[in-house]
Design a protein that fits this description.
This protein is mainly beta. It folds into 3 domains: 2-130, Immunoglobulins (Immunoglobulin-like, Sandwich); 149-205, Immunoglobulins (Immunoglobulin-like); 212-346, Galactose-binding domain-like (Jelly Rolls, Sandwich), CATH 2.60.120.260. Helix content is 6%, strand content 48%. The chain has one helix at residues 2-23, and strands spanning 36-42, 59-60, 65-71, 76-81, 84-85, 97-101, 114-119, 122-127, 129-130, 136-141, 150-156, 162-165, 168-169, 171-175, 179-183, 192-197, 200-207, 211-213, 220-225, 231-235, 245-251, 255-264, 268-277, 285-290, 295-300, 306-311, 320-328, 334-346. Strands 18, 20, 21, 23, 26 and 28 form a 6-stranded antiparallel β-sheet that branches. It has a 5-stranded antiparallel β-sheet with strand order 19-22-27-24-25, with no helix packed on it. A hairpin with a 4-residue loop joins strand 24 (285-290) and strand 25. The radius of gyration is 28 Å and the shape is elongated. Residues 142-199 form the IPT/TIG domain. Residues 1-24 form the signal peptide. This is IPT/TIG domain-containing protein. Keywords: Signal.
């Protein structure tokens, strides 16, 4: 990566020399006049080693080099992208061109959408859009939403977002940079939700309709601990997805049962859940029991939220599901365990 950066810097210098030679007709300098920005072009190489085309662009990506082309730049004092004071190397400035790295801290939302070059002779402005990072997609809720339900997406970089469920466009009802609400379209089951901005697209990690728990136990027909301890399915103090999680208080080797309406799971390949141990004991663990004790899968826990996935191949490749049993197995006298975002993984 260091070599690639060095090559990009050298490429920027070569482009600057080339562009300056092409732009200085008969050595006619404009250094004493008001600056003018005519275009912005990418500079350097892509990660695969191919050279970037010197074609004007209207969108720039942070952490990439660009050539600001025009005239009257010799006395440049400041360059701003969306009013963010951007560092430039004086050696990368000629009368007609400035080679500059767009800072990763450049604002992209609620911004001026302009480049500003300030020289001793005046100020030039030029329309440009600074691209946000590709969206991050943390979760959506409710995962089992039906047609017409309002669904919330949590993540980041949701600038002018486009939401799809599978290939179907969804109606966005509201959005901020970190949250979107949209209306679930028809036939959403077994499809992934995607969020796009001008920089790219990010899919959800789970499919619509795959939840066993996301704020509520889906298809719940009964749940309890063997000891009668607390089994709270609406614990709002600590959660990883949505508005609530499950809090289950176990004595040593205590257990809990969850019963569900029977559902077809032939389209899934694994059971999934996010779990957190209240105890920081390194022996903290939980045994997941499937098929009426036919299959017992022990997993270690930690005091931070941890994703657990159990392949169906480890539990007899079930085609239906109606029960889950849990047993505390840390062997240190009991534990309180939090669970959230529980369900299945599509094949």
């Amino acid at each position: 990566m260091k070599n690639l950066k060095n090559v990009s810097l050298i490429a920027c210098l070569l482009f600057l020399i080339l562009f300056t030679s092409c732009s200085n007709d008969d050595n006619d300098s404009n250094g004493g006049n008001t600056p003018v920005i005519e275009s912005v072009m990418p500079s350097g190489y892509y990660e695969d080693g191919t050279i970037k085309s010197l074609e004007p662009v209207s969108i720039v990506d942070p952490k990439n080099y660009y050539i600001i082309h025009g005239k009257g730049f010799l006395t440049t004092k400041k360059v701003y992208f969306n009013d963010y004071d951007t560092y430039f190397r004086p050696t990368f400035v000629t009368d007609t061109d400035i080679v500059i790295l767009v800072d990763e801290k450049t604002p992209y939302a609620d911004a001026s959408n302009k480049i500003k070059v300030v020289t001793e002779k005046g100020t030039a402005e030029f329309d440009i859009t600074v691209a946000p990072p590709v969206p991050t997609f943390n979760w959506f809720n409710s995962e089992n939403a039906a047609e017409g339900d309002v669904v919330t997406i949590n993540g980041n970089y949701f600038l002018n977002p486009i939401v799809k469920v599978g290939t179907e466009n969804a109606t966005v009802l509201s959005s901020t940079l970190t949250q979107i609400t949209f209306k679930m379209p028809a036939n959403g089951n077994d499809k992934y939700v995607t969020v796009s901005n001008i920089s790219g697209t990010t899919p959800s990690s789970v499919g619509v309709g795959s939840a066993l728990y996301d704020d509520v136990l889906q298809g719940d027909t009964g749940h309890w601990t063997w000891s009668g301890n607390e089994f709270n399915t609406n614990y709002t103090t600590d959660k990883i997805q949505g508005d609530a999680s499950m809090k289950i208080v176990f004595n040593g080797w205590d257990g809990a049962d969850m019963k569900f309406n029977s559902r077809d799971v032939s389209k899934y390949k694994a059971f999934r859940v996010r779990v957190k141990s209240a105890s920081a004991n390194t022996n903290a663990s939980l045994t997941f029991v499937f098929g009426g004790w036919a299959y017992q899968v022990k997993r270690s826990l930690s005091s931070v939220w941890t994703y657990i996935e159990i392949p169906f191949s480890e539990i007899g490749n079930p085609t239906t599901f109606d029960q889950l049993t849990l047993q505390e197995s840390g062997n240190f006298g009991g534990n309180t365990i939090y669970m959230d975002d529980m369900g299945f993984v599509l094949k």
